[in-house]
Amino acid sequence: MGQQFQYDDSGNTFFYFLTSFVGLIVIPATYYLWPRDQNAEQLRLKSLRRVHERCLWYRLRLMKSQQSIVPTLKKAALLLGWAVFLFLAYKVSKLDREYQEYNPYEVLNLDAGASVAEIKKQYRVLSLKYHPDKGGDEAMFMRIAKAYSALTNEESRQNWENYGNPDGPSATRFGIALPAWIVDQKNSMLVLLVYALAFMVILPVVVGTWWYRSIRYSGDQILINTTQLFMHFMYKTPNMNMKRLTMVLTAAFEFDPRSNKEATIRPTDNIEVPQLIRELGNINVKKKEPPFCYPYSLKARVLLLAHLARMEVSEELEEDQRFVVRKSPALLQEMVNVGCQLTMMANNRGGFHAPRLVSIENCMKLSQMVVQGLQESKSPLLQLPHFEEEHLRYCISKKYKVRSIQDLVSLKDSDRRNMLRFLGEEKYDEVMAVLGSFPHITMDIKLQVLDDEDSNNITAGSIVTVTVTLTRKRMSEVFEKEQDSQCPGEEPPAEETQQGEANKSRTKVWQNKNKAAKKVAKSKKKKLTKKKGAGGMGQQPKVEKQKQANGNVAGNEAVATTKEEDEEASDRGSDSDDGEANKDSPSERDEESDKQSDTEVDEIAADDEEEWKALQQSIQRRERALLETKSKITHPVYSLYFPEEKQEWWWLYIVDRKDQTLVSMPYHVCTLRDAEEVELKFPAPSKTGNYQYSVILRSDSYLGLDQIKPLKLEVHEAKQILDNHPQWDIPETEEDEEDQEDSDGIEESEDDDEDND
């Protein structure tokens, strides 16, 4: 049986292929690209309007969502694709099937299993009707004759039953779902031209462009040359002040038109940039050190400083300024990463000075300044709307002494209204709405040594894990708590005072239940380890002391516990009296010692089991944190002058303020919506003693919301490892094992001889 390949001359199978191909493109594209989020974006912006209405990024985003034609073009393209798909599907539905299963009974219009007489009769009727000599259809007559032969001739019938064809097995034909004109000799040059254009021009250009871009950028979409530039200057200037840092930042190759097509140099720069320089004052224009003296670097520096000074620029420079400001936070994050890498290299290898802590923290502070559009010396209150320089004198007066956001929040509502009376009622409500949206972060710090028997004992050189639990709330929740609480100057009624004291006592009782139980367990453990010679009279005072120590335990549980202890003490006293009476009996002493040892083993096993469960839970928590991929969309930042929507992100790290060094590398917290748990690891000092560290939480977007918490570290001497542990005396060979068995046998025989003597 042969095989034949042929192209689709009629185009039927090509339509099947084309319909499937268009469907595979249109259906997933509709699911992923249909702009169904347009209404959701409008609703989101509407919900943010009350707080962020005056923000530059909000106005730009609102204008873009209203004027953008991209969603309309997407819908039009997808609808066109669906129209083509439906047309092809309709075309395919009208095509006749070329291949049908041959059935001679259907040709003769007979039911399956008809008798030979019926077949002959039907053949005579149809042959008279379709015979060519009678004016019938010759092709139909040939089909009728073939069907009659398949049902009456034995050989034809067997061929039809075995191969589905009365003529026997035929060659298998495979159709290629491409029209025949593609391989036609007349169209060969056109087809070759299309193939060459697709696979020799377009595909190499696309792959080459992607590869060239990938090798120029890092994982954070920062130019590799920019990272090398930052590393050079941070190594060259370990102690970098804010002015020098601004120069290094604006020297990034992202602002160079030769490296980035988004950056532009305009003909009007020669006029407008010098004018801005004169207004700004001293910005190190005469510095001849490259690349600070290059035109692109000077322009970016001037535009960034004008943004920090909240100066107005021309419409032509405004677009370039937004580009510089928008790129700056990511570049500053890259500078922080570079500073941390150089610090790690200096700690591991040595040989050069690492960047000072002040340099890394200046990068973080400059990020806050860029997002808020404020200079270093300006008040954090200027982040709020309607606040101007002349208004600050009301805040910093001797009566209010409000210099920070926290001072403004902690102020009484009446004093706050009186201080901000220059705003008016409407502006005051807007300021309070913005202030209420600011983040309020609480830090809970836990210090431990994981994967160790005693996780609370920090030894020299051990790996310390500081687990910081961050909880994010809104400032408005702080206002609500202050309003619910009593004012400090007022005294609550006597009944409320008594009730509060009762609640406090109940809280203390509830908190001390576990402590009391632990004390009882420890006292029992001490009694079990002591010698029996003390007797029952010596144990009775200890029970009384124990009862006094646990006097805070309230309710029937405490009474029941003391009664049980009295009964146990009396039982132990009677047992001890019996023991004194029969103290010459060695069997009873052995039984009591066995009981004591069994009790100690059980308690130690229970403690080990609890520690093992805690260790397993910490490991599972870390594994879940590694597997989870959280969104970096947290909360939009309120920023009056930043041109792009910025999310709230934070830096968390540990420092030694005494030596001005980093203890743990800064962790960039990008997923803090409500609560986040972060683990900071660092090696404990090699010398024993007490150390004072600081855990710092620093915002990358807000000024004046940074937090510092002290961290006390008590380092003990490391445990000594026993060299001659009995479990490690394992013989290396069979001969050593036999020698050891022989020596053990000799020692046992000598002991038996001594006992016999």
Automatic annotation (TrEMBL):
Gene3D superfamilies: 5' to 3' exonuclease, C-terminal subdomain, C2 domain, DnaJ domain, Sec63 N-terminal domain-like domain. Pfam families: DnaJ, Sec63. Keywords: Chaperone, Coiled coil, Endoplasmic reticulum, Membrane, Phosphoprotein, Protein transport, Repeat, Transmembrane, Transmembrane helix, Transport. Residues 103-164 form the J domain. Residues 496-512 have a biased composition (Polar residues). GO terms for molecular function: protein transmembrane transporter activity; RNA binding. SMART domains: DnaJ, Sec63. Residues 549-560 have a biased composition (Low complexity). Residues 515-533 have a biased composition (Basic residues). The chain crosses the membrane at residues 14-34, 69-90, 189-212. It is a multi-pass membrane protein. Residues 480-609, 723-757 are annotated as: Disordered. Residues 570-598 have a biased composition (Basic and acidic residues). Residues 599-609, 731-757 have a biased composition (Acidic residues). InterPro entries: C2_domain_sf (IPR035892), DnaJ_domain (IPR001623), Ig_E-set (IPR014756), J_dom_sf (IPR036869), Sec63-dom (IPR004179). It comes from the Eukaryota. It is found in: Endoplasmic reticulum membrane. The ER translocon complex consists of channel-forming core components SEC61A1, SEC61B and SEC61G and different auxiliary components such as SEC62 and SEC63. Mediates cotranslational and post-translational transport of certain precursor polypeptides across endoplasmic reticulum (ER). Proposed to play an auxiliary role in recognition of precursors with short and apolar signal peptides. May cooperate with SEC62 and HSPA5/BiP to facilitate targeting of small presecretory proteins into the SEC61 channel-forming translocon complex, triggering channel opening for polypeptide translocation to the ER lumen. Required for efficient PKD1/Polycystin-1 biogenesis and trafficking to the plasma membrane of the primary cilia. This is Translocation protein SEC63 homolog. It comes from Scleropages formosus.
